[in-house]
Structure formats: structure tokens, C-alpha cells
Design a protein that fits this description.
4 helices, rod-shaped, 36% helix, 3-stranded antiparallel β-sheet, Helicase, Ruva Protein, domain 3, alpha+beta
């Protein structure tokens, strides 16, 4: 039930909203990512509701957020550069091509 709405059940509330031109839908989202300065805020398996009112959409997200660093960790790049005896730039490029897989990037650079 919703505060201040008495004992209206969710189905009745949705019907009333539909009459006022408000449409709500649940999205089957796997992941929601907010790109912030220097990091991403990620919500895996979120509950996402889309409300359309007067042609505008409002998204509501619920879930447990976690922070992820953007880009490749500097330590990983340095490890690849050191292990393959290449420059930082070459190591970074190889690591990006290997989708962050250290062993694959090193093996590629040692060929």
C-alpha cells in the first residue's frame, strides 16, 4: 500500500494513473551504469521502472550499487610493460586489446 493513499491496492493505483495519462513499465535490465568522473557506479540486476507522463520518461532504479574504476589499473599496465619489456604505451594498448587479461597481453607482446 502507499502512504496517504488509504487502502488502494497497486492494481487500482496503476489503473488510476493510466486514466491520468501516466504509464509505468518494468524493464528487464541486466546492468545500469552511471559514468562519473574517474569511476563508474554500477548496479547489477537492478529493478528498473519507467514512467511516461506527458511524453517524458522518468527512470527509477533500485539495487545495490558498487564503484568500478574507469580504464585499466596503472599497476596492471606496469606489470605487463615490465614482464614483456615494452613501453607503458605498448603495454596499455596490448592490455586493452586483451580486454584486461594480463596473461594474454603479455603473451601477445612476447611473440
Amino acid at each position: 500500500m502507499f502512504p496517504g493513499m488509504g487502502k488502494i491496492n497497486p492494481k487500482q493505483l496503476q489503473g488510476m494513473m493510466k486514466q491520468m495519462g501516466i504509464d509505468t513499465k518494468e524493464l528487464d535490465a541486466k546492468r545500469v551504469i552511471f559514468e562519473l568522473e574517474g569511476k563508474n557506479l554500477v548496479i547489477d540486476n537492478p529493478s528498473v521502472t519507467v514512467m511516461t507522463m506527458q511524453g517524458k520518461k522518468t527512470f527509477t532504479f533500485m539495487g545495490d550499487p558498487k564503484e568500478e574504476q574507469k580504464g585499466l589499473p596503472k599497476d596492471d599496465i606496469e606489470m605487463v610493460a615490465s614482464s614483456a619489456n615494452v613501453s607503458f604505451e605498448k603495454a596499455e594498448k596490448a592490455l586493452k586489446e586483451a580486454n584486461g587479461d594480463l596473461a594474454q597481453a603479455i603473451a601477445k607482446l612476447k611473440k
